Amino acid sequence: LNSSIMQEYSVIINCSPVGMFPNEQLCPDIPYHLLTQHHYLYDLVYKPALTLFLQRGKEKNTTVVNGYEMLIIQAEESWRIWNTV
C-alpha cells in the first residue's frame, strides 16, 4: 500500500483473525502513518474490543468500529433462520 492508494480508499477492513487472543499484540501490516481522519477502520475481531489495529487508527483520529455488532446480528439472524417456522 502506498500513499495514493491510501488516499483513494478510505475504508479498511480487517477480516482476518490478526489481533485476536492470544496474539493481541499483532495487527495488520498497513502504513498506519498514512491514515487520516477521513479513514474508516472496521475490525471483524470483537475481543479485545479495541484491537491494536483499531488503537492505531484512533491515534490518527480515524473512525473505528469492532465486530461485536456484526456478531450479534449474525447470531440473531441464525436463530431466526433455524428457529422460525
Describe this structure in words.
This protein is an alpha/beta fold. It contains three helices and three strands. It has helices at residues 3-8, 52-59, 68-83, and strands at 11-14, 40-43, 63-66. The protein has a three-stranded parallel β-sheet with strand order 1-2-3, with helices on both faces.
SS element count, helices: 3
Globally, the shape reads elongated
Gyration radius over CA: 15 Å
Q: What are the secondary-structure elements, in order, as H or E?
A: HEEHEH
Question: Sheet with the most strands?
Answer: 3 strands, parallel
Coarse structural class: alpha/beta
Q: What oligomeric state do the depicted chains represent?
A: single chain
The percentage of residues in β strands lies in: 5-15%
Q: List segments where confidence is low: pLDDT < 50 over at least 5 consecutive residues.
A: none
Average pLDDT score: 96
Biggest sheet: strand arrangement: 1-2-3
C-alpha termini separation: 48 Å
- Got a strand count? 3
- The percentage helix is 25-40%
